[in-house]
Write a structure and sequence with these properties.
Elements lengths: L2 E4 L3 H12 L4 E4 L13 E3 L5 H7 L3 H5 L9 E4 L5 E5 L9 E3 H10 L6 E2 L4 E8 L2 E6 L4 E4 L2 E3 L17 E12 L2 H4 L1 H7 L3 E5 L3 E7 L5 E8 L2 H5 L6 H9 L7 H8 L6 E7 L12 E3 L2 H4 L7 H18 L4 H29 L8 H18 L1
Helix pairs in contact: 1-4, 1-11, 2-11, 6-9, 11-12, 12-13
Length: about 375
């Protein structure tokens, strides 16, 4: 058996690594030209009830622990006036250690044999050949055939149409991301507000969130519930004007909070949130399946990367447990993956609904309670 994976994100690479551990040949095709083609995003909290299970299956727990940024599990919730409502220190016992996404991806890449990932292979489509085989077409016109195809290619998967007609839809919310570098010396008020870990300053239809990443870099996520045409009216090619327009939505907020928007060292980047239908699933199609966002895209809730990695690990373990019977392995994997992702998606929707109609000054308190209930429910699932 040989496995073809499209997408070298965390889900696809975890799948490739666990397959390699079990002696199953695998090839990964990735559109990016190289591992350093772009930055890989900010920090991820990798949970002991899903993401770390995948790391363990990959045999990389020691390497993972070496990537953990100490102290970053600390969290504080502020109101719009800058008053700290809740502060949770990182005492080293939490089950959600923080790592840089780029470091985690590099760890997985380094654990694969050279040549496993074929860079610069942008997939434009795929088609069934019969008898469970599929052909993948790349942007340069070349093709590859495979008896087992896995789409790990994210929200706009080119493999998903082999299984379902479902497409992502905008959820009505977007992040605007901004970085502040050398924050302790160049942006001291913002750095003090964030503290040693993460900050949440939520409101009714907006919020300011930030992480302290490696060193003294601050990563701001401005959350705005607005239609897409509202964002389209902002000229993001003019960083200063874009930051000012976004910051205007927080008029009257504490200056140390709005500084996380206006004092950025990078141009604001718009990240609209899309989702597949909650409970999205498909009928079993021989020789192909999906992992991660390709299978169950949902708005950011802290679980996406963890679910993708667990998907990859469980699929690999199922294939290893059913040598010579790919369909039994795929059915076993999907039977577990479908209800798990549906439950997380439903819980995330309930989390959002709890904030609907809440008075502005009550949002932080309600958010804290909802977050605790959400994470507890996900852990139990």
């Amino acid at each position: 058996m040989s496995v073809t994976i499209v997408g070298a994100g965390l889900g696809g690479l975890t799948l490739a690594r666990v397959l390699h551990v079990h002696g199953i040949p695998v090839t990964v095709y990735e559109a990016e030209a190289s591992p350093l083609a772009r930055t890989q995003g900010g920090m991820l909290d990798i949970h002991d009830y899903n993401g770390q299970i995948a790391v363990e299956a990959a045999g990389l727990m020691a390497e993972f622990r070496g990537l953990v940024l100490e102290g970053r599990q600390a969290m504080r919730v502020l109101d719009r006036h800058g008053t700290v409502l809740v502060e949770q220190p990182d005492d080293g016992t939490g089950g959600r250690p923080e790592v840089q996404r780029a470091d985690l991806r590099r760890m997985l890449l380094d654990a694969l044999p050279a040549g496993t990932v074929h860079w610069g292979h942008k997939v434009t489509g795929a088609r069934a050949l019969g008898d469970g085989r599929h052909e993948v077409t790349f942007a340069d016109g070349s093709t590859v055939g495979t008896s087992l195809l896995v789409g790990a290619d994210g929200a706009w998967s080119r493999i998903r149409p082999l299984l379902t007609d479902a497409t992502p839809e905008y959820v009505g919310e977007a992040f605007v991301e901004i970085y502040l570098y050398d924050a302790d010396t160049r942006h001291p008020a913002a750095a003090k507000a964030v503290g040693g870990g993460s900050l949440m300053a939520p409101s009714v239809d907006k919020g300011i969130h930030a992480h302290r990443e490696s060193g003294d870099t601050l990563h701001t996520y401005v959350s705005l519930i607005r239609p897409l045409d509202w964002f389209a009216a902002i000229d993001f090619t003019d960083p200063e004007a874009a930051a000012a327009r976004v910051a205007a939505e927080f008029d009257g907020w504490a200056p140390e909070l709005t500084a996380l928007i206006t004092d950025g060292d990078t141009a604001p980047v718009l990240r609209p949130h899309h989702t597949l239908p909650i409970g999205h699933r498909w009928e079993r199609v021989p020789g192909v399946t999906l992992v991660g966002d390709a299978a169950h895209l949902m708005p950011p809730n802290g679980e996406g990367a963890n679910l993708a990695m667990l998907d990859g690990a469980e699929l690999a373990l199922a294939l290893a447990a059913h040598p010579g019977d790919v369909e039994a392995a795929l059915a076993e994997y999907e039977e577990t993956m479908f209800p798990r992702s549906a439950k997380v998606g439903a819980q995330g929707k309930q989390f959002d609904e709890l904030l609907a109609g809440v008075a502005e000054d009550d949002v932080p308190r309600v958010l804290i309670k909802a977050f605790e209930e959400f994470t507890g429910a996900v852990r139990e699932s």
